[in-house]
Automatic annotation (TrEMBL):
One of its GO terms (cellular component) is cytoplasm. This is inorganic diphosphatase. Its EC number is 3.6.1.1. It comes from the Bacteria. NCBIfam families: PRK14869.1-5. Keywords: CBS domain, Hydrolase, Manganese, Metal-binding. The lineage of its organism: Bacteria, Bacillati, Bacillota, Erysipelotrichia, Erysipelotrichales. Residues 69-131 form the CBS domain. It catalyses: diphosphate + H2O = 2 phosphate + H(+). The keyword Manganese applies. Its cofactor is Mn(2+). InterPro entries: CBS_dom, CBS_dom_sf, DDH_dom, DHH_sf, DHHA2, DHHA2_dom_sf, DRTGG, Ser_kin/Pase_Hpr-like_N_sf. One of its GO terms (molecular function) is metal ion binding. It comes from Dubosiella newyorkensis.
Length: 535
């Protein structure tokens, strides 16, 4: 089953690139993996992806499985214009007793089951008579594996069927007016039946027809068909020449491919069908077997650059988390089964992912090396952050050699890739936001990294209003906006929320804290100390 690899909400470059690179590694190791994201990417991340020719990972909105992600029965279906005989043959080949029925545009309009066809034989004979009145001669020929001899422009059939047995009186004792008549190769009987007003002759054990019989058929507008079967099978198959549309049920219970499995299971409990058509834009994708939903599948996931469920995709607790690759604190992570957990005190998750490539002896392509290097530069602020380790620096140099890149030149391009004039305050406030629980308080910390503050003009009053609106809307206790300037080697702090007034004394008029760069190692501990001192 596919593995979905994702970083945290409000993803930064490290989160996005780690998911891309680790998915590549997993695929190289023979596992099917897809990189995902949990929100929009930043200008910086977009720059890196474009520079090294990587597509943006797909958006993942929920950790629950959709019907489109699980194994379904094949999408075997049949046209409404097909015969019941063709439907039975298709069911036999597919080894399933049901078929979805589609129109000329392949839109699903009904269902036909083997029981529906079997019931035709036990229904009131009036029902079969009514159906046969409108059967197409071409469908009869196809079903009977026969041959069309003569079909008049205007058929006169009442839907009734007669079988003429061999006898000395031939057709004299039969009421055949406007009926389908099954008869053998006796030309005298054939002609008598035509003259008595038969609507159609179905000839069995007959390879040809006499000229005078054909002339009589044309004179009396009596259709003639040669059957490829004997009398008994011809009479059996006759009713299978009806179109599927005549018997199909139009009371459909279908589910969309995008629906979540757990929601569908709840809906299925209202019905008692064994299988349900799964559709996309009204066209069949496959069938869901109710019996297989006793043990519903879960989505296989790997978390990178985070381990706290509060920072992960919605309903992550309902997924099967296989691995965690992270460099943050371990907080509220729990699992029901063993998990491969790789947590290291390094400056970037991409450092850990790079290590895994070398540990598995998997070559890193040039462009992927450049992408990994860019993410490491971003997350460590070009290795100036206090989170930086010697391992980050050493692996970055190896990646630079593989990518044919100069670290400082790439760092300059990355940090000046942000077009600050194209961003409004909301972009900065929510571009890279993480939620934390600090001494029982709900705290959101958004960090935006810019080359220098002089490039940005922020109206403090507007900033305050936006932050207050967010705290009220989200119900958090404290909102911290950290604006980190690379060239000034420090961070500007802005705070809002119920706790803000108690902490305001920690900020001077400039709001600037020199040498504070890392959210993980500096900003979170700093805010934690402020809260503890206030209490």
């Amino acid at each position: 089953m596919t593995i979905y690899i994702t970083g945290h909400k409000n993803p930064d470059s490290d989160s996005i690139v780690a998911s891309i690179a680790y998915a590549y590694l997993k695929n190289e190791l023979g596992e099917e993996a897809i990189p995902c994201r949990l929100g929009s990417i930043s200008q910086e991340t977009e720059y890196l992806l474009n520079r090294f020719d990587f597509p943006t990972p797909q958006l993942l909105e929920d950790a629950r499985c959709t019907l489109g992600e699980i194994e379904l029965l094949p999408a075997t279906q049949i046209s409404q214009d097909a015969t019941l005989f063709e439907a039975l043959q298709t069911m036999k080949q597919a080894k399933q007793p049901f078929l979805a029925v589609h129109d000329q545009n392949h839109k699903i309009i009904g269902m036909i089951t083997r029981n529906d066809i079997a019931n035709l034989g036990v229904e009131d004979t009036a029902y079969g008579i009514e159906m046969l009145q409108h059967t197409k001669p071409s469908d009869l020929v196809k079903t009977l594996n026969g041959k069309e001899i003569y079909i008049p422009e205007h058929l006169h059939l009442n839907g009734k069927v007669s079988i003429v047995a061999l006898s000395s009186h031939r057709a004299l004792r039969y009421q055949v007016q406007e009926r389908m008549v099954i008869v053998s190769d006796d030309p005298i009987a054939q002609k008598e039946l035509i003259e008595k007003g038969a609507g159609m002759l179905i000839l069995v054990w007959c390879d040809s027809i006499e000229k005078d019989v054909l002339e009589a058929a044309k004179q009396h507008e009596c259709a003639i068909i040669l059957s490829g079967h004997g009398s008994m099978n011809t009479s059996r198959y006759l009713y299978f020449s009806l179109p599927v549309s005549a018997l199909m049920s139009t009371k459909l219970i279908t589910f969309e491919r995008s629906e979540y499995v757990e929601d569908v299971i709840r809906k299925m409990s209202r019905y008692r069908y064994r299988s349900y058509p799964i559709v996309f834009e009204e066209q069949l994708c496959g069938y869901l077997e109710a019996g297989k939903m006793l043990y519903p599948p879960t989505k296989n996931m790997i978390l990178v650059d985070h381990n706290e469920f509060s920072q992960s995709v919605k309903n992550i607790e309902k997924a099967s988390v296989l691995e965690v690759i992270d460099h943050h604190r371990i907080h509220d992570f729990t699992s029901t089964r063993p998990v491969y957990f790789r947590n290291e005190t390094v400056g970037s998750t991409c450092t850990i992912v790079t290590s895994l490539f070398f540990e598995h002896n998997i070559p890193i392509p040039r462009k992927l090396a450049g992408l990994l290097l860019g993410a490491m530069i971003s997350d460590t602020l070009n290795f100036q952050s206090p989170t930086t380790t010697q391992k980050d620096i050493d692996l970055a140099q190896r990646l630079a050699n593989l990518a044919h890149e100069t670290i400082d030149e790439l760092a300059y391009d990355i940090f000046f890739s942000n077009d600050l004039s194209q961003k409004d305050i909301n972009d900065f406030l929510q571009e890279d936001m993480k939620h934390f629980e600090i001494t029982n308080y709900q705290v959101a910390i958004a960090q935006s990294i810019i080359p220098q503050s002089s490039l940005l003009s922020i109206q403090e009053q507007e900033l305050k209003e936006k932050m207050e609106a967010y705290t009220k809307r989200s119900g958090i206790d404290l909102y911290v906006f950290a604006l980190t300037s690379i060239l000034e080697n420090g961070t500007y702090f802005y705070i809002s929320g119920p706790l803000a007034q108690q902490l305001q004394q920690n900020l001077d008029q400039t709001h600037f804290f020199p040498n504070i760069l890392s959210r993980k190692k500096q900003i979170v501990p700093l805010i934690t100390n402020w809260i503890q001192e206030a209490n």
